[in-house]
Amino acid sequence: MEKRKKKKSEWFDWVKALLVAFGLAFIIRMFLFAPIVVDGPSMMPTLHDGDQMIVNKFTYLIDEPDRFDVIVFHASAQKDFIKRVIGLPGEHVEVIDNVLYIDGEKVEETFLEKKDGLYQTLTNDFSLENLPGEYEVIPEEHVLVLGDNRGNSTDSRMIGLISMDQIVGKTSLIYWPLDRMQTIGE
């Protein structure tokens, strides 16, 4: 009889441990970190199609996005996009002859691929006023995002500014494939 009780108690302990583990995994996945797979070439050369990354979901609960953060956001109810933050609230953004200007000041984009000193990824000229919404400055609680592959990216130039409510989180760690494992920054 004692043996049966001990076996039942052991089995119950295992079930409790598994429930706690699944509960913690659920909480971590829902509120802290989540995996995402890069879909398409819009962030080349920084990110490649099929790269698997970790999204930090809580960082923007305690901090605001910084220029050049790579973020994941809800582009629609069915689709999340990965893009780079270029413009922040209160700023005016424009690109003229492949040069980024924030509030009239030239800003270097070191992450864009250059060959022989020239950008291989051309950015068609645009100004904040030409984008959907026709803003003069980026409103509070919004950011302007662009893909690193400017010639092949659906970003703020087409879909408009991104509200903070749409942002899922920041991503900076590629964990798969192993030969591309790295952290990304500017």
TrEMBL record:
Membrane topology: Single-pass type II membrane protein
Location within or outside the cell: Cell membrane; Membrane
Active site: S42, K83
Top enzyme class: hydrolase
Keywords from the named record: Hydrolase, Protease
This protein's record includes keyword Heme: no
GO molecular function: serine-type endopeptidase activity; signal peptidase activity
Family annotation (Pfam families): Peptidase_S26
GO biological process: signal peptide processing
Source organism superkingdom: Bacteria
EC numbers: 3.4.21.89
CDD domains: S26_SPase_I
Similarity comment text for this entry: Belongs to the peptidase S26 family.
Protein name in UniProt: Signal peptidase I
Organism: Virgibacillus profundi
Gene coding for it: lepB
